[in-house]
Amino acid sequence: MELFYAYEVAGGMCLLDAEESGHCVRVLRHRTGDEIDVIDGLGTLYHCALADDSAKGASARVLSCVPGFGAHPYRLTIGCCPTKNNDRFEWFVEKATEVGVDEIVPLIGDRSERKVYKTERAGRIALSATKQSLKARIPKIAEPVSVKDFLRGSGGTGGTGGTAIMADIPGGDRAPLRLIAYCFEDESVPRRSIKEVLETFDGTDVTILIGPEGDFSPEEARLALAQGYIPVHLGSSRLRTETAAVTAATAVYLRYL
Amino acid sequence: MELFYAYEVAGGMCLLDAEESGHCVRVLRHRTGDEIDVIDGLGTLYHCALADDSAKGASARVLSCVPGFGAHPYRLTIGCCPTKNNDRFEWFVEKATEVGVDEIVPLIGDRSERKVYKTERAGRIALSATKQSLKARIPKIAEPVSVKDFLRGSGGTGGTGGTAIMADIPGGDRAPLRLIAYCFEDESVPRRSIKEVLETFDGTDVTILIGPEGDFSPEEARLALAQGYIPVHLGSSRLRTETAAVTAATAVYLRYL
Q1: Does A72 contact B236 at a Cβ distance shorter than 8 Å?
Q2: Interface size between A and B, measured as CB pairs under 8 A
Q3: A75-255, which class in CATH?
Q4: Do B246 and A98 make contact, defined as CB atoms within 8 angstroms?
Q5: What is the pTM of this model?
Q6: For the structural domain made of A3-67, what CATH number should be given?
Q7: Which of B6, B35, B137, B169 could bond B14 through an S-S bridge, CB–CB 3.0 to 4.6 Å?
């Protein structure tokens, strides 16, 4: 099954941009009349008939649609500090998208080695991984924001969750779960495992923060706790930032399996 | 904490090869008398004093040791078909090592696009990830074997598990769990989720088979079931081969968290 992305769906027509059109018409040689599957990136799959097989700007007429195609029964926001090596963060974006994530917020921490992050490539990777894993909703890649500003409520949709989405999810009305994976080297703060905390949570809106290679600063951790974030650990293995982020996403995915 | 790998530990001395010695002496500028931490790749950490700071072949005297350093409470073998793109399989090797795996068996399936696999690079990646994630046991990278030969008991340590290791693990004496993640497109075979099967398992010796991009062949699947493998699914997301393998490793890791 091959999915195409429509940048606009209106009047019963799905419009493909130059890249998607080229792939559909030039590479896969689809012609007017061929039936294709198109996603709007917002959660709906459209089964269509190709109406205009222009390789620069193809369009397809909607025959039927499947709302919530490939959707998961939770809403997950992962705030993660981009790694020094960009490939590692992009790998996390791809894998988290395959497993199932709704929003990724690049966080700039006090100890982040990478203080600047451009989201364009991550957006393309998220689109590609969404199509590859047969989902219709592309995770949002938020603009980078400092850990402290994110905790204060700006940046990303944070906890607020997007009512439109949450309304569709059983338990979406319950209080959200806010977790911070923090090493707390001094161990002054007792932590439970992410698995234990997820299993005792009866809602579906989860936000998880993953720090940079040098971990969150004590100030960031204190602010998170003050904002109601629950400190969790991911087990005894020392995981790289991007591995911790994917492990956290997988823990949520498995929780709702 | 920086770990070095000793290719040999004998007579109270740890011997480092040229690469490890160069990293220890030339890069990190350790000198005779410095205390360093060395792993034997078999599960033991040795706290040592550098005895010979030769950048070509350094040696260190053992001061104390920690058996089972960074060990996990299960024994996991993952048989996975190498991906067409080698980077993806190597990424799985790195991530599974960080999370915790004991043996990786490159499987050549009837539908594998990659029929040949060289294990040398994967071995280096496993060593590097073992040190990076603060473990003392390097996962074994078995020689490639066909899916059918593996199922017939040749290749890897398969289910047999390595008594020496299992003796150290509670539940290691119980019957092993054999799982095959197979799409069973025809759906003729009922599958349970890997999470459900793991939660009802009271042992600690787990083997999981992950097929190639084109999935296992019906013959391979039939042979697996005949050999007592339990068919499982990894949830509704369509995961790439390497993502499925890491998700399976993470499911086991979280099961014993």
Answers
A1: yes
A2: 82
A3: alpha beta
A4: no
A5: 0.91
A6: 2.40.240.20
A7: B6
